[in-house]
């Protein structure tokens, strides 16, 4: 298990370095002309955070012994396959029904069906996540997410916020 932790941590650190290398091709500081961060700011800083988290995992795994534990057992492998299939289904649904339907469907399935959590937590996450995504990406950053067939439902919101 610790070998897998180390390998994945090193791979994530390498991927983070690659993302940071490409992000610095764009301005990463505050852009005075647009009054906001440069195009490379979010990719750079998120990649740096990702690299630091992976470094923490790597450091924590050094000096520990796992006692020969296997990384996956049958139950864990089934769970991973289920989540991967659900993620692929979510990604396939996004162009059709939009991010604001596909993502809450995945969250509902993951939290309530797969995770067997309470209705309160399920509803808070299922409703709160698309609201946060809308206000963060579309209203604050002016980045439109795919809406698929639900696009006409957003016209009143566009009129209100843009």
UniProtKB/TrEMBL annotation:
Q: Does the keyword Ribosomal protein apply?
A: no
Q: Show the InterPro entries listed in the entry.
A: DUF1468
Q: Where are the transmembrane segments?
A: 7-30, 42-59, 80-111, 117-137
Outline the extent of the DUF1468 domain. 7-146
Pfam families in the cross-refs: TctB
Keywords, ordered alphabetically: Membrane, Transmembrane, Transmembrane helix
Q: Can you name this protein?
A: Tripartite tricarboxylate transporter TctB family protein
Species of origin reads Marivita hallyeonensis
The lineage is:
Bacteria, Pseudomonadati, Pseudomonadota, Alphaproteobacteria, Rhodobacterales
